[in-house]
Amino acid sequence: LEDGSGQTADWQVSGSGSRVGRVVDTFRADKVLRYRANECSVSSKTGSGGGGVQLTIPSSVGQDQLTLSMDWFLQHNTSLSVTYAVKDKKPHTFHVHYLPSDTLLWTRGTRSIYYGVGLSYGWRRFTRNLLVDLQKGVAAMGHVPRTLRKISRSRVQVLSLQLCGEGRLDNLTLATAEHLQHFYAAADWLTRHQDHTGGWPITVPRTIVKDILQLASGWYSAMAQGQAISLLVRAAHHSGDLTYLHAAARATHLYTVNSTQGGVRAYFPGGYAWYEEYPTTPSLFVLNGFIYSLIGLYDLKETSTGPVSAKASELFNTGMTSLKTLVPLFDTGWGSLYDLRHFTTSRVPPKPARWDYHTTHITQLLL
To answer: Angle at Cα 56 formed by Cα 53 and Cα 62, nearest 5°?
Structure first.
């Protein structure tokens, strides 16, 4: 839609002091779009905008092109608004706004959805799945018609983009997918937010069994650690950047720390080590989360060398011994159990795995 050369997008400018132009950016050594929208505002009641720099999306853009990406120079007053039309018995219009904030998501009224994109300024690659952002935002509104609780791709059309404040952008596109950009956005987020333990704390409380098995905010999950390791290993392999591999190696530390001391390692009677998806006291021994944690260790041991590979191998082999020994305890003869809570907690019956979890167990064990 916009490549900075001026040969593509037809931006409409309104409001006193608003303007748009194309300049050579010294950092990028290329032409980019520079804009200013001094009187840009969005009504909290209607969600409609006033002033600003706006681009009407051409009719040639297909309804399946709902992944937005661009190189964006953010300043403290910069924001981007996307206007959607959603087909229903009565058509609905929504406005999704992206702006510098550490608040992840909030809504106003029944039309406006806000996403904080962080407080880092300067050039950055910005990629969003617009359908996902719309669905999450509408769900966050609470009281919405049943027909809007799940919005299919075929019902959504992007009408326009509005730029507010001051900033610059380049390589603005709408596409069907940008998987590689999302992949690196996730890998980079993991490297930025890894804490001193090598982990990624879960910032919401979790209740598994009321008054018996609960976790306060700030707990760690072996499943999350394993899946993060798998992602980081692939990022290192694809990019050649060892920063990702070093982060994956640090993520193994919590496998060595007992769950009673803030880690993810528990022991089944007989001394069998288990890496807990939910490190409760008493322990749960969730099967699918444990296997995901093992897959992460396998990925790391196969793609690293020296002490990193040796540590990952030791943790993996210890876990595999436990899995081979204890997996019969999960077999009901007609399905599988989700965990072993009935072994460790009195007055709690066995928890059969739902069919989708049972299918996951089969797939994991085959792997």
So the answer is: 140
CA atoms within 13 A on the CB side of 284: 26
Q: What is the pTM of this model?
A: 0.83
User: Packing angle between helix 287-303 and helix 306-326, nearest 10 degrees?
Assistant: 150
Confidence of residue 347 (pLDDT cuts 50, 70, 90): confident
Give residue-wise pLDDT tens across range 246-269.
999 999 999 999 999 999 999 999
The half-sphere exposure of 49 on its side-chain side, counting CA atoms within 13 A, is 29
Say which CATH number the domain at 154 has: 2.60.120
Whether 190 and 221 share a structural domain: yes
Residues 150 and 220 in one domain: no
Cα–Cα distance between 27 and 245 in angstroms, integer?
29
Which of residues 132, 156, 177 is at a domain's end? 177
Rounded Cα distance between 267 and 165, Å, is 56
Residues 202, 153 share a domain: no
